[in-house]
UniProtKB/TrEMBL annotation, chains A, D:
<comment type="function">
    <text>Part of an ABC transporter complex. Responsible for energy coupling to the transport system.</text>
</comment>
<dbReference type="GO" id="GO:0005886">
    <property type="term" value="C:plasma membrane"/>
</dbReference>
<dbReference type="Pfam" id="PF00005">
    <property type="entry name" value="ABC_tran"/>
</dbReference>
<comment type="similarity">
    <text>Belongs to the ABC transporter superfamily.</text>
</comment>
<comment type="function">
    <text>Probably part of an ABC transporter complex. Responsible for energy coupling to the transport system.</text>
</comment>
<dbReference type="InterPro" id="IPR005876">
    <property type="entry name" value="Co_trans_ATP-bd"/>
</dbReference>
<protein>
    <recommendedName>
        <fullName>ABC transporter ATP-binding protein</fullName>
    </recommendedName>
</protein>
<keyword id="KW-0547">Nucleotide-binding</keyword>
<keyword id="KW-0067">ATP-binding</keyword>
Automatic annotation (TrEMBL), chain C:
<protein>
    <submittedName>
        <fullName>Cobalt ECF transporter T component CbiQ</fullName>
    </submittedName>
</protein>
<keyword id="KW-0812">Transmembrane</keyword>
<dbReference type="Pfam" id="PF02361">
    <property type="entry name" value="CbiQ"/>
</dbReference>
<feature type="transmembrane region" description="Helical">
    <location>
        <begin position="21"/>
        <end position="37"/>
    </location>
</feature>
<keyword id="KW-1133">Transmembrane helix</keyword>
<dbReference type="InterPro" id="IPR012809">
    <property type="entry name" value="ECF_CbiQ"/>
</dbReference>
<dbReference type="InterPro" id="IPR052770">
    <property type="entry name" value="Cobalt_transport_CbiQ"/>
</dbReference>
<keyword id="KW-0472">Membrane</keyword>
<feature type="transmembrane region" description="Helical">
    <location>
        <begin position="69"/>
        <end position="92"/>
    </location>
</feature>
């Protein structure tokens, strides 16, 4: 369980989070919807201690987060964050080095673990490749593998479908399912209503710096009010099946 | 390690501008000539300078308490050679003064001489003489360490010339030894850390 | 000092002198201080530019001034200690000469005076405005263009570095000295690769918009001539006449 | 009218374009659909001469494109390209300098034109701001303004909705409409079916290096076959209007 209590955070003059009370239950898929700039990424970064709130508390597994070095190390091993753009996340030169980056920093040197994760993501044959020569899809897989290699309890996904086509979105959907099957709790921030509703057990909406809605699903009228994506409803009137 | 704005008396500020100017002009002309070629455009030159600038913003393991920052000129001279490095370093030092308050405008000539010209040149000579006998990584390590140490020795000499312990050559030598000795506490380990960074970087670049 | 915040400071500062004139103003003041025979020139520069700087940027100006001063003090201490001459003070094995004190005072005042000028320039003038000043001084086109492009590339690469550092922190990259060095090597390489692709992207973007070898430059009207005259006059009179 | 005839282009060993015959009529909105990596960006870059084909011909306004410097300068003034990522496109440090970049390169120094474009994009008060201090949405606006300031005949938009929420997508939709109203012909590459169908007069699909489909709209079955996005259809079953 990850919870926040009256979380407040300013960036310069702007109140990004203005008293957020958030709950994500362990074992459930929680989706945080919100328009561009609503503070979704800022909220996620509080969950693994990359940001420290101005006031309020973050609870992970029932305990309040502490901000000394040892507690943060422990927290970041338990809560993995997958960035929106894999280019921002791949820090090591080769695939193998990047996947092993987190575990090695944590002092864990288990080659078998790395090999297992690499093969789960179909990267066994790519270990020596340089990250910058990978395709977009391969980079995404490496970034997911690098986070899973730390064997986290929670995985935070920031706009996981940004820039992906249908095939890519479906793959991310399957990945989310595999997380819950493995007992890992995913928390997803997105403005992509189609994707988010497909995977969500619980839906929350972040707007104006607070949690503005919570439920099992998101009514269409709300998606529109929150400026989320639903272009497709208005437009797609073409008949189906008229071409093989 | 840069000399602060206003630290050198006018005479010495001018002297170092006089020494740096022809070399930087030569480097500029040479870089401009390369940039007319399609393979390395103005955009490439600019990004190379930006890369060296940003290297100095990297977090490095702390030595003796304070955080240290690589100068990047060792890496630059191995990648681009001494003439281009003289030009790039001038840009980098200018922006370090204007964006970070490191170094200064009146001391730019002195800082370019030590960090952009003499240090990289000696580092480059070390690289060229080591390269036939050892691998790229070790040669780069040597070049970066020597470039860094030379830079700080030249800076010590520049300060000593401006502030001799007593008039005459022996006063300058005394001062230089004092400055070099005191700065060595931080600069010797910083040079080695920078060498390790440069060597690691070059080995990755060689892979790609 | 953090880079991004500097740009916010520049954006919100309201200097009395504006445009290219502001750059010439600071350059001239630096040269006057450098060559002034009297220490009074340094003091008058210090007073004038601290006033102008605080007036333009408030407390942010003092933050910018403070950092170089920390670097300055150790060097001054050395100069005091090793300069020979008749002894002014002695404690244990150390003795301090009158000449050393005099020299440190001169150097310290000149340096602090100059730093207040440079810091004023930093908080009030953006790089494009400075480059425009260089351009009107007939600096070669190649240097002008590369300077502007370098500045843009610095902006981009610093942003990329900040993102990479954040990601590395989340994956425990800066936990110990050893992991920090390894992480720095990796990040340096990532930045190198990003530099290469950025250079291509920048070049494409320029070509796509019909680049033929000249960048347009900033044009802010100059304003505040009276302040310039008063301040430079003060420094000159203090330096040469008093 | 922009057309291509048997356009072929290799990137290394890979045949990205393998005989593309494409047509975009002047005055119409043409959308090029295709999955990630289908070669949409590569095709767009042929239209303004950033890439030169290995074989085949590009026609702009009926004339074959020539690759000498003068012809290219002229071509790039007529055909503006908006990159997917504004960070790749903004070349000058400040907003005003960036918007004026194209026109000044073309030898046009009309401050009024720059001012007009700046105000059209609501950037009048931002002229002196540094590009890296802008928000994502502001950067996008500057990148559009910079292209329009050249008064092109054609505007190429590469994945214009990538990373945008519903509000952002709608704004881009209105921008496309404003282009056709002003007599400028937009050509859009995207994998975003919802957005693309909303704005398209003509739809083409690029797949396997050739134009695989052309029509007025895109049947759903095809979207699926081409790996485009249509997540939302399978998932959104929530009742509408149950909240305010």
């Amino acid at each position: 369980m990850i919870e926040t209590e009256e979380l407040r955070f300013r960036h310069g003059d702007e109140r990004v989070l203005d008293g957020v009370n958030f709950t994500a239950k362990a074992g459930e898929v929680t989706v945080i919807f919100g328009r561009n700039g609503a503070g979704k990424s800022t909220l996620l970064r509080h969950f693994n201690g990359l940001l420290e709130p101005d006031s309020g508390t973050v609870f992970v597994g029932g305990d309040p987060v502490a901000y000394d070095d040892d507690s943060l190390t422990d927290l970041r091993r338990r809560v993995g964050l997958v960035f929106q753009n894999p280019d921002d996340q791949l820090v090591a030169p080769t695939v193998e080095q990047d996947v092993a980056f987190g575990p090695r920093n944590a002092g864990v040197d288990e080659p078998e673990r790395i090999d297992r994760v690499l093969s789960e993501f179909d990267l066994d044959s790519q270990t020596e490749r340089l990250c910058n020569t990978l395709s977009g899809g391969e980079k995404k897989r490496v970034s997911l593998a690098g986070v899973l290699a730390m064997e986290p309890e929670y995985v935070l996904l920031d706009e996981p479908t940004a820039g992906l086509d249908g095939t890519g979105c479906r793959a991310i959907g399957q990945f989310v399912e595999s997380l819950t099957d493995a007992g890992i709790t995913p928390i997803i921030a997105t403005h992509d209503v189609g994707f988010g509703l497909t995977v969500a057990d619980t839906v929350t909406v972040l707007d104006g710096g607070v949690i503005d809605y919570r439920g099992d699903t998101l009514p269409r009228s709300l998606a529109d009010r929150y400026g989320l994506r639903q272009y497709v409803f208005e437009s797609w009137t073409a008949p189906d099946g008229d071409l093989s | 390690m840069h000399i602060m704005e206003g630290f050198l008396p006018g005479f010495w500020a001018l002297v170092w501008y006089g020494i740096a100017a022809p070399v930087v002009c030569y480097g500029t002309v040479k870089t401009a000539r390369i940039a007319r070629d399609q393979s390395m455009t103005k955009a490439h030159v600019a990004v190379a300078a930006a890369f060296i600038f940003v290297l100095s913003a990297l977090k490095m393991p702390s030595v003796t308490g304070s955080t240290s920052h690589p100068t990047g000129t060792g890496i630059s001279v191995v990648l681009f050679g001494p003439a281009v490095t003289a030009f790039l370093s001038t840009l980098v030092l200018l922006y370090q003064a204007l964006l970070l308050g490191h170094g200064g405008l009146t001391t730019l000539g002195a800082n370019v001489t030590s960090m952009g010209i003499v240090g990289p040149l000696v580092g480059w000579l070390v690289f060229r003489s080591l390269r036939p006998y050892t691998d790229l990584q070790k040669a780069t390590f040597g070049a970066a360490v020597v470039a860094d140490w030379t830079t700080y020795l030249v800076t010590s000499l520049q300060l000593a010339l401006a502030f001799p312990a007593e008039p005459g050559v022996s006063g300058v030598v005394d001062s230089a030894v004092t400055f070099a000795g005191v700065f060595s506490v931080t600069q010797l380990p910083v040079g080695i850390v920078e060498g390790a960074l440069a060597a690691g970087l070059m080995s990755y670049i060689a892979m790609s | 000092m953090h880079h991004a915040s500097l740009e916010q400071i520049q954006a919100t500062s309201s200097p009395r002198v504006e445009g290219r004139l502001n750059a010439y103003f600071a350059f001239t003041a630096l040269v006057l201080v450098l060559f002034a025979p009297s220490r009074l020139a340094y003091v008058s520069a210090l007073v004038c530019f601290v006033a102008l700087g605080v007036d333009a940027a408030g407390r942010d100006y003092l933050t910018v001034v403070r950092l170089p001063v920390y670097f300055l003090l150790p060097s001054l201490l050395l100069v005091v200690l090793f300069t020979s001459g008749s002894t002014a003070l002695a404690f244990g094995p150390f003795s301090v000469s009158w000449a050393g004190l005099d020299r440190s005072l001169t150097t310290g005042l000149r340096s602090i005076g100059s730093i207040t000028i440079l810091s004023y320039l930093i908080v009030t003038t953006t790089v494009p405005q400075l480059v425009a000043a260089l351009q009107s001084l007939r600096c070669p086109r190649f240097v002008i263009d590369v300077s502007l492009l370098t500045y843009r590339a610095i902006q981009i690469l610093l942003t990329e570095l900040a993102r990479l550092e954040l990601a590395a922190t989340g994956r425990l990259g800066f936990r110990t000295r050893r992991t920090t060095l390894r992480t720095s090597k990796s990040l340096a390489f990532s930045l190198f690769l990003k530099s290469l692709s950025r250079a291509e992207a920048l070049n494409d973007a320029m070509l796509a918009r019909g680049y033929d070898g000249k960048l347009p430059s900033a044009t802010t009207a100059s304003r505040g001539h009276s302040y310039v005259a008063v301040v430079l006059g003060c420094i000159a009179i203090a330096g040469w006449s008093l």
